[in-house]
């Protein structure tokens, strides 16, 4: 009776529970819609208003104002007015470069007399874009590509006339070695396992743009924050590298973290190493607005999958575990550590007096590795090395405890120098790679990133060199070979060749040869957009003098992100080639 009455009271005899169901569904839809609207608004606010340094410090343990390795150059200062610290070295502007060159190669821009002011964490190398053979290539405007062929370096090109017999033998060997002499644990191109050369290809315009913005990465050094510093153009962010015979995938943070699960990658070297490490963190940390929305949806999906016993890595904010010896960021979902260690030259250095070199001048023991990071390498699974630009800085070269040369220092002209700074660089590369490849407790992967070209056109950084107004990669016929870059690259290859023939442990050496392809990217540097100073100079002054600018480091986001796409591909190939088939 009660049941009949209850049904009768319902419209058209409908069950009350069923009548309530549409209202519950409507409430759920409204909640989901409200959440989506919140995510959209929050993401827009995140992009529009970057996280302040105070908030960064609270949540991430980062205070950008106290980054030990940040060189702050005010835009309205002269290029030699740097913040001094205990490691700052100012070289007399009348000092000789101390080179044995008599050819077109110069470290001092249009003049060989230069002021070399470099602090311990950032450098502006002194070198000239010398006139030489133009590269072959082709470029199309937006939507097109810049194509080039990576060729073997001419052994005689840019070589010094008065070099030693050993140096002459090196130059005649060329940039490439006989692969038959290369051990199985070494690779010149990182492509031996796939048949595709990653470094012969072209730049193409990608309308999708970068994977992060200058506002979504809290660890971006202000000097490389080109958009935040007022750079008006953005197309330099969209050009991506395409190998001729295969594809180079966009950086996949999930894939990287999964490959590096329980592992550590260390970026070791100069401020260009810092540039690359920060790019890696930005790529892993946060994506752009669209990717943030996708990530929010993925979080919801992953919560459901986790309840079913599945777990997947996703882009996340790392935990800052750094100390005075190294920067360390831990991605806890996969226990992946990203490390950066500063090492100017990668070899042992001291300021103590040696023979006729007085105390205070930096002495480089070219036959001994930098002990400050060698003690840590057994803990690393992947090492990425960066060096070269500090060989333009004042230093004394020591081999077997004997002074054999010097850069911007040689007091006794009656004493003949046995090596110059270019040869010293080649020896240092051989030393550090050999030390790693023969270390009894290192079994990981070492990636040598080749010399990063600068683009100071018309002079050096302090003699009128400029990269202002460059908005896209160089076109065919525009790329002029830089003699100093060419020979530095060649000596680096020679050092690599010698090291891989001495390798004795189970580690692997890979060469990431970016020098020629990045010679086309004169558009990727900060130029005059190096600081937030609203009064900084960005235009040429009276007499056509360019403003102070940085044409060595790379904007972020920008071309430097390609380096980490290459690193990911090298790691993937290496790990797949060396994985245990029984697993």
Briefly summarize what is shown.
Its main location: membrane. This protein has 583 residues and is of the alpha/beta class. The protein has 12 helices and 18 strands.
What does this protein look like?
The protein is an alpha/beta fold and about 575 residues long. The protein has helices at about 1-10, 15-50, 55-60, 165-175, 255-260, 270-285, 290-305, 370-375, 420-435, 485-500, 515-520, 560-580; strands spanning about 90, 115-120, 135-140, 145-150, 185, 200-205, 240-245, 265-270, 320, 325-330, 335-340, 345-350, 365-370, 380-385, 395-400, 400-405, 445-450, 510. α2 (about 15-50) packs across α7, α6 (about 270-285) crosses α12 (about 560-580) and α9 (about 420-435) packs parallel to α10 (about 485-500). The chain is globular. The relative contact order is 0.17. Keywords: Membrane, Signal-anchor, Transmembrane, Transmembrane helix. Belongs to the PC-esterase family. TBL subfamily.
